[in-house]
Inverse folding.
């Protein structure tokens, strides 16, 4: 969703990326609420900006940094949660699946093609979100289709990161 009230501003990213828009109309802003929760009392400029969306019953936690750093965070948290009796699932990519051997994971797409992750995120949240206690997810760079993926993932996770956002 793009607002043209003032400077062009993306309110909800999707298949037409910021980079595609900028190639046609010049600079495009991204609303702060795309990647961060609204401040107390702040009015949502678009549906889907205010509340947690597509959130499963399971807790969703995001790991940032490089793919290896994210995997290390996830593996450490996963192992501790399992020791505490929690049921865990990792949403991995084609490129990171080898980091998660001996743990439960589902490949939800390809880091090189974030559109594949966008296409399968909600189905994976529905499939595993009612049976696992915790879902661990890897962050992507917030550019091109990665922006849309991170917008959806952050909302499903209620903006919860395993470690402070990098």
């Amino acid at each position: 969703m793009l607002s043209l009230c003032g400077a062009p501003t993306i309110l909800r990213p999707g298949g037409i990326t910021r980079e595609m828009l900028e190639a046609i109309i010049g600079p495009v802003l991204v609303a702060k609420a795309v990647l961060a929760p609204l401040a107390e009392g702040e009015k949502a400029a678009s549906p889907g900006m205010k509340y947690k969306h597509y959130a499963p019953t399971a807790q969703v936690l995001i790991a940032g940094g490089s793919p290896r750093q994210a995997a290390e965070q996830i593996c450490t948290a996963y192992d501790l949660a399992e020791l505490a009796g929690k049921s865990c699932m990792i949403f991995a990519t084609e490129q990171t699946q080898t980091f998660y051997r001996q743990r439960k994971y589902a490949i939800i797409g390809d880091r090189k093609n974030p559109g594949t992750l966008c296409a399968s995120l909600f189905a994976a949240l529905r499939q595993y979100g009612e049976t696992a206690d915790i879902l661990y997810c890897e962050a992507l760079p917030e550019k091109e289709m990665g922006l849309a993926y991170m917008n959806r993932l952050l909302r499903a996770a209620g903006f919860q990161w395993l470690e402070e956002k990098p």
